[in-house]
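Standup notes
- HV: blocked on the assembly model, inputs below
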Amino acid sequence: DVKVTQSSRYLVKRTGEKVFLECVQDMDHENMFWYRQDPGLGLRLIYFSYDVKMKEKGDIPEGYSVSREKKERFSLILESASTNQTSMYLCASRRGGTGELFFGEGSRLTVL
Amino acid sequence: EDKVVQSPLSLVVHEGDTVTLNCSYEVTNFRSLLWYKQEKKAPTFLFMLTSSGIEKKSGRLSSILDKKELFSILNITATQTGDSAVYLCAGPMNRDDKIIFGKGTRLHILP
């Protein structure tokens, strides 16, 4: 079975802190994605990566950056966390050119 | 701008009813459309649709795509309380496979 693992299920950070959210997949997938999910707004795409070291902005990249140095790992970075970044963050992966996304369990971030 | 629009945003029905969930899209280079079910955790995959007019079916759930009119529907027959969830529609919108989701339909089934 495909497994997508997000390193932290729950995080509490303070405004201005740097935050790293890690995502690892074990199926050699080319594509990886970071979404945030908020009530009433659905899943919104922050960044995606279609291969190692490649990244593209999604619909809401402001305040975020990403890193994909190895194929299996896609990191989301909040350089200076703000309260409006309190949210559920979902990582997903899929084989390039195919449809199904495989999701991690999510990381619930609270910024105080 | 590519987008996916789902309707209704919320729906409450009684157990045993049949429901139809809608997904319309505007894309520059359509490739496929995806349906997911989300309960308390991460979304789980239901269907992928690439060809117009071909119904995908899994038990009481079915889905069909109309590429000419740019929409898809998800049908659930003989609903059960376990069908209560948020149903999400999404699509790879261009050659870079940027997958965009709609806001989802929150379905609640009353016993």
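- HV (later): unblocked. The first strand of chain A starts at residue 4 and ends at 6. The interface with chain B takes residues 31, 33, 35, 40-45, 48, 50, 56, 58-59, 90, 96-97, 99-106 of chain A (CB under 8 Å).
- Next: hand off to the docking folks.
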